[in-house]
Design a protein that fits this description.
disordered N terminus; alpha/beta; N-(1-d-carboxylethyl)-l-norvaline Dehydrogenase, domain 2; Rossmann fold; 5-stranded parallel β-sheet; 3 domains; 39% helix
Amino acid sequence: MATTLQNTAQQTLESVKKKTAKVGILGLGYVGLPLIQAFTRAGLECIGFDVDQTKVDSLNAGKSYIEHIPDEWIQSWIDENKLVATAKKEDLKEADALLMCVPTPLSDSRDPDLSYVEATTETIASVLRPGQLVVLESTTYPGTTRDVVLPILEKSGLEIGKDFFLAYSPEREDPGNPNFTASSIPKVVGGYEPNSLEIASALYSHAVVETVPVNSCEVAEACKIVENTYRCVNIAMVNELKVLFDQLGIDVWEVIDAAKTKPFGFQAFYPGPGLGGHCIPIDPFYLSWLARKNEVPTRFIELAGEVNTAMPSFVINKVIEALNSVGKSVRGSKIGVLGVAYKKDVDDDRESPSFKLMELLMQRGAILSYSDPHVPMLPAKRHYDLPRLASEELSSEYLAGLDCVLIATDHTAFDWNHIVNHASLIVDTRNATKNITDRKKVWMA
């Protein structure tokens, strides 16, 4: 870049380039820990900050609380003096870069909830010193960095672009994906001004395979929203086709498998019981909220959200049909839900449709249980009033004692032949039983 950096900016850039800069990661969850791995592998020291003292204590003891981040990684970071975890905001002064990886959920009215971002930014502002780079990584709507984060940081009395630097770089983490890690995914970076962009790009260039500089924070924010809205809309299309093809007696999974043999012009998306994970169920609502605020209709996006939100009800209707076919009702029936993680082979249950499915079944009087090898205890969720159940072992006795098995997540660890052989009735939302020859007792949903 042609920017001539002087004084504080020059010093920060030089420390970043020489890898003497310390990186502070605020939010030690599914985004923060992989980011620490990427930076420590690149040879930089990290300070991990979280308000949850339990997480801090666990990390400092070399123990992980996320399944796909093994203890060995944590311990190696500690042993090599590459990581210190803390809940003390004063320790953030030691970091040269502060990367915010905190949740951005929806409110009860499905509006953006930036309380975590605002609280974390307030924490940073209270200890902000000259020379520090602040980067927001949390998914949000275009304008958040400029209109929400910056005014809070300016309370420190420091000047943007001169005393401190500000950027937005959206996380692209895919928990449990062995093919793409934080370091192997290109990183989009948008700076508030040229100094901020140059410093942020230089920092991330150490840790990731490629940095993609863009002209503003707003472009970077919009990029992340577009990525996830694209997926949301396409998943909604196949979910809607699933409902239609179900009425026509056509297997939507076979249709998609046939369509994806075309080597161009088609990308396969798959239906399911509803959307899960932190991004796809939430991000389109951030965009539609921003559109309403600016009096611009986004009917296509809102329709996709409605279709996907309706999927759990479609699944429950299939459970009702399946039980009716054997002379039973949902009320009083023993129903086992297989999988509460939002996708296969992870312990990540954020926004999992399984919780909505379980809530709907309980409202109809079902006797619930569940099995998930990655989630041993049913976690408490603020939007759902569910019992604190423990995961059941999928023994032949357990399966035989159920009136219906509802497959919500298709974990590799599940033995589908064993499940089909011992369960009396199955509702499959993931096409998990596709390779089973005798599927007479299987209902697709």
